[in-house]
Amino acid sequence: MAIETTLSILRRAPILGLFEDEALRVIANVADTRRLRPGEVLFRHGDRSDGGYVVTAGTIAVGRAGAEEPVLLGPASVIGEIALFIRMQRPATATAQEAASVLRISPTLMKRVLHEFPSAAPAMAEVLTRDLEAVAAGLTSVERLFAEQEASERESRGHRDVV
Prior knowledge:
Layout: H1 3-12, H2 21-30, E1 32-36, E2 41-43, E3 52-57, E4 60-63, E5 71-73, E6 78-79, E7 93-96, E8 100-105, H3 107-116, H4 121-162
Antiparallel strand pairs: 1-8, 2-7, 3-6, 3-8, 4-5, 4-7
Helix pairs in contact: 1-2, 2-3
């Protein structure tokens, strides 16, 4: 893939688009490219991460077995945003839906780029903070739903005991 095409994709990628072009050039030149065949697994739920990925072509489905429909991600999508910064267990499985390619960006590469081009760091921290706040709000909603369900079941059991 031509460097200009790769740079165009990286500019549109969430969080990475916060970097200046010179930083994106470093990422484009150093990141590993991986091509996937239809149905090929990029990583599985529970695998230890080796970085985050930017989809450069095709479509990748990300989801958990038995969960709702997987999320379909196309060019300029970031898969494993947190894995760009730290090594962790993968929370889902990513599978190519068609011939696809991705750039793997390791935490080591991200640290290098942030060290050499620190101006994007505050904006990245803000984006990651907002993302984590959204996750926390979602967890609070789920906790409330479970509490309501439990209260309803208790009430239902109490009503049966009386009858």
